[in-house]
Amino acid sequence: GQNIDQPTEMTATEGAIVQINCTYQTSGFNGLFWYQQHAGEAPTFLSYNVLDGLEEKGRFSSFLSRSKGYSYLLLKELQMKDSASYLCAVRRLSGNTGKLIFGQGTTLQVKP
Amino acid sequence: NAGVTQTPKFRVLKTGQSMTLLCAQDMNHEYMYWYRQDPGMGLRLIHYSVGEGTTAKGEVPDGYNVSRLKKQNFLLGLESAAPSQTSVYFCASSFFPEVEREPYNEQFFGPGTRLTVL
């Protein structure tokens, strides 16, 4: 089967750094995605990892360790607008369907 | 480009009523998906389509039907709505995951439909 775990809620301070962890158990791993979702809005793509290591995109970075079934999303220089849910999703090798399995999401609250 | 659009944005149904949710995309994507999102449950895949005229079941298909008669449209039907189908429904689309294209072929999401079944 497959299982994806993320913390339900996190709180951080404006200007700080926060790390959101995601652990997964799945067969046929073919990539891990992070999406951002503001309340009442659609998820939007943030980052993608398929090989081990760190991918950096401005204030956001994402890390993957396939052997440990572990990823994290790192947000630097937090801004109030970063208050949102962050969704971890795993893609499996399943006949090229592109299907994603999502974790339940981590709600991040950024405080002044 | 409008990207992925969904109609309607909101709907209230009574138990036993039927309705169809429409998803349209103008990005020429081959793949389309329907998800539902419930508090504490994350996004769960209902049905998906890998091309015009083809559909397949996802994680939670019971009580729903879909059709993909045109490449740009993906319809989700509820034949006899139940209170358990109260949820926010998201449609998404993506390219066929070829290495020659963007390496990640992420899914693009529509704005969602908030459905309440009384």
Structural description of this entry:
The complex is a heterodimer of chains A (112) and B (118). Chain A is mostly beta strands and 112 residues long. In chain A, 0% of the residues lie in helices and 59% in strands. In chain A, the strands form two sheets. In chain A, strands 2, 4, 5, 9, 10 and 11 form a six-stranded mixed β-sheet that branches. A five-stranded antiparallel β-sheet of chain A has the order 1-3-8-7-6, with no helix packed on it. In chain A, strand 9 and strand 10 form a beta hairpin. By secondary structure, chain B is mainly beta. Chain B has no helices and eleven strands. In chain B, the strands form two sheets. In chain B, strands 2, 4, 5, 6, 9, 10 and 11 form a seven-stranded mixed β-sheet that branches. In chain B, a hairpin with a 5-residue loop joins strand 7 and strand 8 (73-78). Chain B is globular and about 40 Å long. The mean pLDDT of chain B is 92. Classes of the chains: A mainly beta (112), B mainly beta (118). The A-B interface holds A 8, 31, 33, 41-45, 48, 50, 87, 89, 96-105 and B 4, 31, 33, 40-45, 48, 50, 56, 58, 90, 94, 96-97, 103-112.
Question: Brief overview, please?
Answer:
The complex is a heterodimer of chains A (112) and B (118). Chain A has 112 residues and is mainly β. Helix content of chain A is 0%, strand content 59%.
How big is the Rg of chain B?
A: 14 Å
The number of E-state strands of chain A comes to: 11
By helix and strand content of chain B, what is the structural category? mainly beta
Q: Most extensive interface: pair and counts?
A: A-B, 22 and 27 residues
Quick one: biggest sheet of chain B? 7 strands, mixed
Helix percentage range of chain B: under 10%
Largest sheet of chain A: 6 strands, mixed
Question: Given the C-alpha coordinates, what overall shape of chain B results?
Answer: globular
Euclidean distance between termini CA atoms of chain A: 41 Å
Q: Overall mean pLDDT score of chain A?
A: 93
Structure annotation, total helices of chain B: 0
Strand content of chain A: over 45%
